[in-house]
Automatic annotation (TrEMBL):
Keywords linked to the UniProt accession: Lectin, Signal
C-type lectin domain residues: 38-151
A Pfam family reported for this protein in Swiss-Prot or TrEMBL: Lectin_C
InterPro entries for this protein: C-type_lectin-like (IPR001304), C-type_lectin-like/link_sf (IPR016186), C-type_lectin/snaclec_domain (IPR050111), CTDL_fold (IPR016187)
A GO term for molecular function: carbohydrate binding
Annotated signal sequence range: 1-20
Species whose genome carries this gene: Onchidium reevesii
Chain positions covered by the region annotation Disordered: 173-192
Superkingdom to which the source organism belongs: Eukaryota
Gene3D superfamilies per UniProt: Mannose-Binding Protein A, subunit A
Name this polypeptide is given: C-type lectin
Lineage of source species: Eukaryota, Metazoa, Spiralia, Lophotrochozoa, Mollusca
Length: 192
């Protein structure tokens, strides 16, 4: 009987520990925002239209990265969140953390963009070879397909999404590293 009790208690502790992992407290307290968890990552959807460099800086200040979409499952999750009733955004676009640098598209975390969801004709190039639009954004009217826009243009300001690794049980409210590998997904969605 004691062995059964110990096994049940161990399973409870393991399950409880996995479920207790969540977005860092300081992320869930950001005003005008919504958080959701997918694949070991906490996503912070910020309902504030800003220029791309400002969005990047805000994510960095919080200890996170701008949104990087590196597979179809993540793209589907982000689209579901952007279309959700809980989010209630009526914006036309959302910045991605992708930027065109040194003839390549890269995420703000330094990784090269490999998965893409560009709209037809995107990324655009002047005369077929010159790119003056160096930041990526998703457009609602194109079912959240990607478009390139000038990073520094005063005309373009959109909402943005930051990403963070999940807290492990017992973590302090300090800043987190930009990698969530090895952590469990609790599947919770938080509204703020």
């Amino acid at each position: 009987m004691e062995a059964v009790y110990t096994t049940v208690l161990s399973v409870f502790v393991i399950i409880h520990g996995a479920c207790a992992m969540s977005c860092p407290d300081f992320v869930t307290e950001v005003p005008h925002s919504y958080t959701a968890v997918h694949n070991h990552v906490c996503y912070l959807f910020v309902n504030n239209e800003v220029f791309w460099p400002t969005a990047r800086d805000k994510c960095f200040e919080l200890g996170g990265e701008m949104l990087s979409i590196e597979d179809q499952a993540t793209m589907d999750f982000i689209k579901d969140q952007l279309n959700s009733k809980e989010l209630r955004w009526d914006r036309k676009g959302v910045w991605l953390g992708a930027r065109y640098r040194n003839s390549n598209w890269e995420w703000t975390n330094g990784r090269r963009v490999s998965y893409t969801n560009w709209a037809s004709g995107e990324p655009s190039k002047l005369f077929g070879f010159l790119s003056v639009e160096d930041c990526a954004q998703m457009r609602k009217e194109d079912n959240w397909q990607w478009h390139d826009f000038p990073c520094g243009s005063l005309k373009f300001h959109y909402n943005y999404v930051c990403e963070f690794p999940l807290n492990k049980p017992g973590d302090s409210a300090g800043r987190v590293a930009p990698s969530a590998s090895g952590q469990e997904d609790n599947g919770n969605v938080y509204l703020k």
